[in-house]
Structure formats: C-alpha cells, structure tokens
C-alpha cells in the first residue's frame, strides 16, 4: 500500500510541474509537428504514400529522445530528494526500504509510459500515422518505459549528485539520440555506429515502432522487446551492484 | 576595468572547472557536426558509396517506371527496386535513404499523388530532391522538366508524364557539410547562451550576487562581465567548430572574415540577451535552464539549423524569417557561399544586433521591476 501512495505522490508532483510538462510534452510535440511539415506531411491528412511514412520513424525518434530527457530529470529528482534528506525522513517512517524505491520506480515508469503514449498518440492523430494493433503499440511503450527506469537507476548510481546526474544525463541523451538517429531516419552512419546504437533503448524502440508501422505485427517486434527486456535486467543489476558498493553508498 | 576582466576570467574558470563541460563545449558538437553533415571523412561519396534509395513501384505504369529511371540517373544516389517495404529495415546498408512508394490505388496511370520522401537533410541528396521535384512539377503542369519551382513537397501529377530527363544546371546551394556545420555551430552556442539566465538566478538565490555587490564593482559591471564571459565562451566554441569545418570539410569560412566576425558577435549578443531575459522573467534556475534548452532547440529547428530551411513549406519559412537562429543561419550560409555578396550576412548582423539590443533593454526593465517588487 505504501508503495502505491509513494508512487501516486511522486507522480502528482511530476504532473504538477509546469516546466517539466513543457519539456516532457510541449517541446517534443512542437518539434514533431515542425519535422512533420518539413518531411512533407500535412496535419490531419494521411500521407499519400502507400507503405511508408518518414514520420513513422521520426515521431518515435523524437519521443524517445525526449524520453531520455525525462530519464535525466527523474534521476536528478531522486538525487535532489536524497540530498535534501527526504529519503532518510521516509526511512524513519514505518515503511520498508523496498517500498520507497519501488514506489519511486513505479511513478517514473508511469510517467515515462504516459509521455510515450501521449507523444506517439498525438503525433499519430495529427498526421494520421498508422501503427497497426494498438495493443502492441501500448506494449512497446510499456516495455520502453520499464527499460528507461533502468537507465534512471543507473544514472542515479553513477552520478550521485544532482549536477553530475544532470550533465551525465544530457551526454547520454544526446549520444543516444545521435547514435540511434532519433532526429531523422536518414542520417548516414557507419556500421560501428549502428552496432554501438544497440546499447540504446532508442534503437530498439525505434526499430519496434518502425516494424509495426510497416505492418510487421507482433512477431516483428518480439526481438526488439526481448532486447529491451535484457537491457532492463542488465541495467537494474548493474545499478544495484554499484549502489551496494561501500565506497559509493551515500551516508 | 580590472574588476570587469577579473570577473570574466573567474566566470570562465568556474564554467570549465568540470571536465564534463568540455564534452558539451567541443566533443559532442564535433560528433554531431560530423554525423549530421553526412559527409564521409574520406571525401565525397560516389558510386558504391552513394546513399541508397529503396523504390517500391507498386504502380508499374510508364509514368512510375519513368520516375524510377529518372531517379536512377541521379549521380548522388543509388536506387534499388524492392517489392517489400520491410526491406528497409532488414537491409544492412549503413546509408539508407527513405523508400519511395507510388500508391497503387490510382490504377497505374497518372494522375497520381506522390510524396517525395527523400530526405532534405543532405545537400547532395537535396539536389536530387530538387531535380525530381522539378520533374514532378513538370508532369503536373506539362512544362519542360527543370523549369518548374524546385520542390520536395508532395506533387500531384495531372498530365501525361514527360520523358524523364536529367536537369544538368548547377545548384548554388549550400552543401550538407556547410548546412550541418553552420547549423550545429548555432545550436551548440545557443544552448549555453540561453542558459545564462539560469546562472543569474542561481546567483540570486544563493546570495552570491549580493555578496559580489559588496565589492567596489558596480552592479552593471558585474552583470556585463558575466554576459561577456558567456559570449566569449560561445565565440571560442564557434571558432573551434569553424576551424573544424575548415580543416575537415574544406569549407570556405574565411572568405569574408570581417563579416563572419561581426555576425558571430551579433549572434552571441542576441543569444545572451535572450538568456538574460529568461533570467529576469523566470523564478527558478530550473525554469530558466529548461526553458532555455527548449527555446534553443525550437529556435534551431525553425531556424533551419537541423533541416535546411529551403525544404520547409511556405508556412514554416515565414517562421524562419522572425527567428534569430534563422537570421544567423542565413548569414553564416551567405558567408560560406563563394558567389554570395556580403549583403545577406550584413543584413543578418544588423537584425541580430537590433534584436540583441531590444531584448537586453527588455531584460534590464524586467530585472529592475523584479528588484523593485522584492524591495
């Protein structure tokens, strides 16, 4: 029960933050609309091309780029809470430690999931993008949100202070964006860049959305979802090991 | 004056006290410039190196075949016919452009609507987009190919398809390297300049600004020195990226050195003014930092720094005309163009200077009214 109360309170705090909402939803939407216009799409009209629309690649790319910015912000919030003593104060309450961490994680997953769903949903409605089965689309968003929560955990364990997490998160966001071609489907890359891009959730997410947009169905996204699942497990184990190390444990 | 320079030096020292700052200052901008410029580090892409266009001809009509044949003549792309659009994701080609899919619903004859999805990102492929756009326009109007307005936007063919022909005229358009380098210079310089406001607010909240004001240095000197330090940082960053563009891409940045310097200073002034305004209007450094980052990205996209403005639809091009990043982009591309007069660069410089002065005045007024409200 405590888990859900903490998750709900954390989520309310995030949703009541106007600056956060601007960065989470408004700016990416403005950019998706602009890039859609540049790509030759007209709002509220389906693209005239038969099998493929560039925006099917670019819209998820931008959504995933901004998802990583939210990852950075979530990690920074955790570090700020720890610095202010909020976490220690919560630990003095009759709540298990695991509930505090799990509650916070659930709130981040819900926030990231909602962000992806809203961005993909609005861009799809605006440009009449077709994704096929909605259930699979929602599943991709959910798996991506869970995976992104792993990156939040890793950032917190690596960065320690809010300012370092801020800088590291920005480096991660920009590097992932460029490696996985989040800004356009057609940035030329070399094979080593494509290989390196596989460590990013952006790569697998974009691949999954793209396969779905091309009518691939559930089978076509299984590999991407599997890769995201493995990535999530690795991230959580790595951040847990890192946090348990005495030299890196705070207080 | 000594106080002025001392504050500049200390501000710059504080900014570069963390090695991570260097990642944002030079490493990431260089990586982005190289990747987004789409230029091979070993020279121009020809033959097998040219980017690939997948063409799924679902129509199979003479017109669509003519279109494919025309595209095949383009020197800067390779065309591969495919029957399955999913080939786009299963291919191992590192340089993949988007697929072109004429719709089958029209019965295979013109008129058909065809959205040209070739990326406008790259200068060379952009030239191809222009030529094919010309041809499609000609198909619509019945005019000879190459005489219609260049367009990569959706084109609707309503007349018989003309014989495919390759327009051979030269395009005095900036290359992908030029637009990529200039666009990244503007984007990366704009982010810290707009972050100036967050720095002001942090100093205000921590009380360090009040502490500095107990020294003999007047408030105006302290503020001017902080702004100058940020502008100097941006100018050095721009100089490094310009040097990189000159050495690696062979861009002619120094064909108009005076105009380039004036334009760079005016751009930094305009950016710093916007940052100062954010600092005066926002309540917390997080507000100013986040809004600064958001504003920098939006201004850069609408200014044509990520995608060439020439490929924007008319409605979006009008936005570019009131965007300081767009003015800077126009100016930098004018400086880079061997055939351009200095007029466009000077025009951009004047616009940016005027913008900077007006916004600085607004920032000063906003800061004064905030101080008055607090006291």
Q: How much helicity do the residues of chain A have?
A: over 70%
Could you tell me the strand content of chain B as a percent range?
under 5%
Largest interface (CB within 8 Å) is between: A-B, 49 and 62 residues
Q: What is the CA-CA span between the terminal residues of chain A?
A: 27 Å
Helix content of chain B: 55-70%
Number of strands of chain A: 0
Instruction: Count the domains of chain B.
Output: 2
**Given the C-alpha coordinates, what overall shape of chain B results?**
elongated
- Gyration radius of chain B, in Å: 25 Å
Low-confidence stretches of chain A: 247-251
Instruction: Please provide the count of β strands of chain B.
Output: 4
**Helical region count of chain A?**
10
Task: List the helices and strands of chain A in order.
Answer: HHHHHHHHHH
What's the mean pLDDT score of chain A?
A: 83
| Nearest-integer average pLDDT of chain B | 73
Instruction: Give the SSE order of chain B as H and E letters.
Output: HHEHEHEHEHHHHHHHHH
Instruction: State the end-to-end CA separation of chain B.
Output: 29 Å
Q: How many domains is the backbone of chain A divided into? A: 1
Based on secondary structure, the structural category of chain B is mainly alpha
For the sheet with most strands of chain B, the description reads: 2 strands, parallel
Mind summarizing the main beta sheet of chain A? none
